[in-house]
Amino acid sequence: MEKEFLINDKIDLPISVTFHKIDDAILIIEPKNPNWIVLSQIEYELYDLLKNNISIKKALEYCLNNSNYSESILRNNMQFLLEKIEQAKFYEEQISITENNPENIKKNIHVYLTHKCNLHCSHCYVGAGNEINNELNIDKWYKTIDKLEQHFKYSEIVFSGGEPLIKKGFFEINVTTQPVSKKR
Ligand code: SF4
Hints:
Layout: E1 18-22, E2 25-30, E3 35-39, H1 41-50, H2 56-66, H3 71-88, E4 108-112, H4 138-151, E5 156-160, H5 170-176
Parallel strand pairs: 4-5
Antiparallel strand pairs: 1-2, 2-3
Helix pairs in contact: 1-2, 1-3, 2-3, 4-5
The structure holds iron/sulfur cluster.
């Protein structure tokens, strides 16, 4: 775990999230960023306490007094949960307000290229499937990205969707906007 959590720490979890039960796991999605984590049942129970702005210690104590889990199981699962939160940076505010030079913060541009996707995953956070009517074509995307480049310094463009690879002309835009990173 990169970050060390102290037992009296409170975790600043995202406020606007949705919960989805998938088999034995709980998928928590923060659509604003977007970001997500997948938790086991016991991790979710601990998460549910932490999101009420109580400390790690209080959450463990509450669970110990109100469930059949042993202390060691609760401690282990709290550690798994905190690792997942830290790994995904699943916090309400991801950029530190103490940053001295905000202009130097690495900026990514996320281009939501198309709503179309051939996989139709049940857990899809945007409900991707069919192309929607008012999607920009690739020429308009290229012009939009070109304008953004004139106004912002950024280090990476992330093409997302839907499935960006099936957008007509995708490889054309990817060549003309070099250097870029193809990421999903
Ligand atoms: S965009 Fe497509 S591949 Fe990704 S989660 Fe949604 S349906 Fe699945």
